[in-house]
Amino acid sequence: MLGKTKLGVLGAATAAVVAGLVGAPAAQASPLVQAAAACPADSICLYTGANATGHMAWFQWGSPNLADQGVDSPAWVISNHPQTMCLYQDPNYGGAITSVSRTVPQGFALTPGWSSVRPC
Length: 120
Fold this sequence. Notes:
The chain is an alpha+beta fold. It has one domain (about 30-120): Crystallins (Gamma-B Crystallin, domain 1), CATH 2.60.20.10. The protein has two helices and seven strands. The strands form two sheets. A four-stranded antiparallel beta sheet has the order 2-1-3-6, with helices on one face. Strands 5-4-7 form a three-stranded antiparallel beta sheet, with no helix packed on it. A hairpin with a 3-residue loop joins strand 1 and strand 2. The N and C termini lie far apart (about 80 Å).
């Protein structure tokens, strides 16, 4: 009889551990990985905040004026675009240029001042 009691307690403890493992929440992906997953295929995603936070706008063909999409002077970029994309300092593709190749999954910080984007 004593053997059955010990086995019953052990069985209940094992069941509680298994239930705890099954009911445990899954680990959350980092915010940058989540942002990269949210960036559509064949697009460049620009964010108003550091580390892919804030307002996000995505582009497949570009924009002559990022202010129209609420991301003038973006702080972060993730590119899921197959082509190298160019960011321009001025609207209508003018001024200084920087190029961005595919950056999934992390992206990188941008210096302030970019106002338009299109494939290079």
